[in-house]
């Protein structure tokens, strides 16, 4: 961790010392100003004066005070000397801090590049690249009046980038970046992945917008032909492209009311290892809940907390074929906002001949105050997930969370959460049988 703090100090000093630390075009700020922003705006409000480099970062520190229990029957499989359904004891304490490094470069008028690195996270304690992309909001270098007029309504994004499926990924916690999330954790079924591809956006002045995109469907690209057999077809797995689309309406109706509604779809028919429902490589912000010490000790990973770095989440494991649909509603009236999600997913692994299913519903109700700053908030979230798990059957999990937060400045945030999560319909010999965990989480976060 010493290296992490040294790195963050160096980044901060560099950021304040570089003249290029100016506002970037068509950009979502890493601080309080980025809250409730979704796609980047087409408003051309920043004059291009040459190459600019913005060095930014995110850092979070969390204190966890959770308790857990289950009703699973003791189960000692071959190779173990103790039950794998008993829960490891938890204590109150600080979790591993996470940090991100964000580089945004203005390459030309209307041309921006982003590179995001995870400096430290729960799943990878070393520095590694999350992804990067180039975004075109203007194509002035083509010297065409026609194209210039078209680009007033179009945005093109190409690279290893967040898959723009649904609107929830704009509000989720991403490693050290917790600024946009009024709660500590993400959804129980956390839809997020980075894939190589392109996304094309159209924005109409009425508030209507549309997006179409194509990706390779993979978190980790490869040029090696698959030898794994799809049992449904009897043939080796194919590397087919994934298609993603979104249609919506987003408008500030008047000074008090904003209304946004969108529908999204993501589909891929054959893939070596799709991770749309499990692509977060940084890890859950609920540490070591509903886990077994014997299983953790038997892991071949360097750190036992890595063996189940998504603790508290559920994924249906659709790695070969997936068809996902999500609807989102966002309403903001003065300081009161509601964000809702309804989702249905079907898919399978290469070892299955038929598709399974998963559904998720969630609602966030947040009130931000006072009216002139909105730097305080109180919020409540309800999240429920049902799915058919391979080898387990139909299961369900519910979570309620209440939060209180404070932006000390636009860059410094503190929040507290009380949460309660329960697992339903798991078999008697599963560690999640009758499982539940609840308690208090405290978090401090910096974004610049």
Characterise this structure:
It is a single chain. This protein is mainly beta and 448 residues long. It has one domain (58-105, 160-447): Beta Barrel (Porin), CATH 2.40.160. It has 3 helices and 19 strands. It has helices at 2-17, 145-150, 293-297; strands at residues 52-69, 93-94, 98-108, 111-120, 128-136, 154-162, 194-203, 208-215, 229-230, 235-236, 242-252, 257-268, 321-333, 336-348, 356-369, 376-389, 393-407, 412-424, 436-447. The longest helix has 16 residues, at 2-17.
Notable characteristics:
16-stranded antiparallel barrel, Porin, mainly beta, disordered N terminus, two-stranded antiparallel sheet, 448 residues
Could you outline the blueprint of secondary structure elements for this entry?
Blueprint: H1 2-17, E1 52-69, E2 93-94, E3 98-108, E4 111-120, E5 128-136, H2 145-150, E6 154-162, E7 194-203, E8 208-215, E9 229-230, E10 235-236, E11 242-252, E12 257-268, H3 293-297, E13 321-333, E14 336-348, E15 356-369, E16 376-389, E17 393-407, E18 412-424, E19 436-447
Antiparallel strand pairs: 1-2, 1-3, 1-19, 3-4, 4-5, 5-6, 6-7, 7-8, 8-11, 9-10, 11-12, 12-13, 13-14, 14-15, 15-16, 16-17, 17-18, 18-19
């Amino acid at each position: 961790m010493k290296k992490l703090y040294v790195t963050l100090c160096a980044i901060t000093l560099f950021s304040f010392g570089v003249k290029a630390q100016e506002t970037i075009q068509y950009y979502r700020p890493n601080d309080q100003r980025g809250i409730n922003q979704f796609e980047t705006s087409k408003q051309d409000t920043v004059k291009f004066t040459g190459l600019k480099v913005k060095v930014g970062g995110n850092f979070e520190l969390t204190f966890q005070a959770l308790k857990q229990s289950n009703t699973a029957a003791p189960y000692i499989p071959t190779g173990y000397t103790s039950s794998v359904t008993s829960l490891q004891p938890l204590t109150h304490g600080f979790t591993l801090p996470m940090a991100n490094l964000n580089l945004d470069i203005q390459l030309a008028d209307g041309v921006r590049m982003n590179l995001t690195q995870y400096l430290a996270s729960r799943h990878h304690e070393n520095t590694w690249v999350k992804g990067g992309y180039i975004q075109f909001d203007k194509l002035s270098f083509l010297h065409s009046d026609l194209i210039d007029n078209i680009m007033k309504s179009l945005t093109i994004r190409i690279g290893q980038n967040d898959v723009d499926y649904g609107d929830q990924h704009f509000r989720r916690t991403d490693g050290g970046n917790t600024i946009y999330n009024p709660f500590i954790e993400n959804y129980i079924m956390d839809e997020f992945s980075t894939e190589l591809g392109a996304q094309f956006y159209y924005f109409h002045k009425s508030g209507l917008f549309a997006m179409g995109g194509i990706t390779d469907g993979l978190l980790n690209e490869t040029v090696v032909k698959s030898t794994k057999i799809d049992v449904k077809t009897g043939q080796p797995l194919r590397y087919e492209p994934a298609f993603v689309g979104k249609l919506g309406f987003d408008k500030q109706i008047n000074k008090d009311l904003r209304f946004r509604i969108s529908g999204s779809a993501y589909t891929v028919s054959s893939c070596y290892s799709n991770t749309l429902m499990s692509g977060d490589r940084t890890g859950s912000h609920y540490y070591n809940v509903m886990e077994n010490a014997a299983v953790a000790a038997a892991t071949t990973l360097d750190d036992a907390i890595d063996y189940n770095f998504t603790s508290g989440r559920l994924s249906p494991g659709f790695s070969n074929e997936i068809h996902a649909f999500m609807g989102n509603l966002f309403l903001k009236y003065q300081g009161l906002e509601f964000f809702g999600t309804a989702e249905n997913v079907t898919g399978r692994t290469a070892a299955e001949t038929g598709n399974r299913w998963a559904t998720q519903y969630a609602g966030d109700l947040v009130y931000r105050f006072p009216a002139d700053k909105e730097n305080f908030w109180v919020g409540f979230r309800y999240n429920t997930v049902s799915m058919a798990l391979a080898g387990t059957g139909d299961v369900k999990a519910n979570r309620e969370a209440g939060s209180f937060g404070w932006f000390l400045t636009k860059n410094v945030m503190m929040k507290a959460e009380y949460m309660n999560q329960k697992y339903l319909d798991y078999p008697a010999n599963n560690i999640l049988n009758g499982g539940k965990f609840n308690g208090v989480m405290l978090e401090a976060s910096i974004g610049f």
